[in-house]
Amino acid sequence: MGLDANSNAGTIGAINQKISETVPNLTGKVHLLPCCIKYDGPSAVSHYFKPKPTGVEMEGMKVEEACFRGRKLQGASLPIPNGYSGFVIRKQSPGKRKASDMSEDNTWEIAAKFENITYWNHDSLPSKDDAFVRSLHLLSVAEAVSFLPMPFIM
């Protein structure tokens, strides 16, 4: 079974990890919506999507409310776990690449950074049982497990 020329399987790329002081900080503006948006271009999102605090706290999370395309969303903002960073990356333009990197089509650069992310549910309040919350918790568990001492066996 051959790979399609447009397939990303086995693709290798590089991320330029230099963070300039001019990189925008999107903390408080990064959202994970429970839907697929089939559009890739500019949009006046902040004009239409206006989350508001509800004053409700569930399991230590402050609940926010918003509407998207007429549907009510309820969400909560969570910090990126300690030891991790949140970045928005974009494909690096050919003019910014070094001559040695010109053959690589998959070179990425940091476009923005963020320290928290707000995730949204359609039909339920945010909960520590939500898959997204558990996935962030898994990062902490994985790090703790990786530092457990291995028993010495003879």
Automatic annotation (TrEMBL):
The coiled-coil segments of this chain are: none
Q: Which GO terms describe its cellular component?
A: ribonuclease H2 complex
**What CDD domains has UniProt attached to this entry?**
RNase_H2-C (cd09271)
Q: Which InterPro entries match?
A: RNase_H2_suC
Pfam short name (any one): RNase_H2_suC
Q: Name one GO biological process term.
A: RNA catabolic process
Q: What is this protein called?
A: Uncharacterized protein
Species, as recorded: Salix dunnii
Give the source lineage, highest ranks first. Eukaryota, Viridiplantae, Streptophyta, Embryophyta, Tracheophyta
